[in-house]
Amino acid sequence: MSTHLILSSIIFVTIGLVLIGVFFLTKFLGPNKKDDKLKNTVYESGISNPVGGTNIRFSIKFYLVAIGFLLFDVEIIFMFPWAVNILDLGYAGIIKMFIFIGLLFAGLIYMYKKKALSWD
User: Fold this and answer.
1) What sign does the dihedral 28-34-38-39 (CA atoms) show?
2) Phi, psi dihedral angles at 47 (to 5 degrees)
3) Nearest to 112 by CA among 72, 52, 79
4) What's the CA gap between 114 and 99, in Å, rounded?
5) How far apart, in whole angstroms, are the C-alpha atoms of residue 32 and residue 14?
6) Which pTM was predicted?
7) Stronger pLDDT, 36 or 92, i.e. the higher one
């Protein structure tokens, strides 16, 4: 066997044993209060007594806005390399990008017609 393989396996085993030892030490040396009522209460965004249940339903418009954001955010990933290489691509690259932008614009019109961008 190679000396590098033996040395690396010893290092990995040592790191694993040290991590296991640290986890056990923190369990025994750290504070351990099981009956702390303040620790077990709900706290969210500065509100210690939330109103309502956790099973509320969100409107589908939240999801439509998120999908629209992803659609138009991912377009930048495709447009930036095109803009960098526009001289090398020539007219064919320009035509293909206009087709791509046209499809994105059609998606925007579809979202507008479905009223995904308007809030009640």
Assistant:
1) positive
2) -105, 115
3) 72
4) 23
5) 28
6) 0.47
7) 92
Amino acid at 69: F
Q: Residues with Cβ < 8 Å from 107, sequence gap 6 or more? A: 68, 71
Tell me: the pLDDT tens digits for 57-74? 777 777 878 888 888 888
CB under 8 Å to 51, separation ≥6 — which residues?
Answer: none
- Enumerate the H helices of the chain as residue ranges: 3-29, 60-84, 86-113
> Phi, psi (5° rounding) for residue 44?
-140, 120
Q: Is 43 exposed, middle or buried (0-12, 13-18, 19+ CB in 10 A)?
A: exposed
| pLDDT for the residue numbered 46 | 63
Of the chain, the percentage scoring pLDDT greater than 70 comes to 80
Measure the N-to-C terminal CA separation of the chain; round to a whole number of Å.
71
All domains in the chain, ordered by first residue: 3-113 (1.20.58)
Phi, psi (5° rounding) for residue 28? Answer: -90, -30
* Tokens 């303040």 -> residue: 38
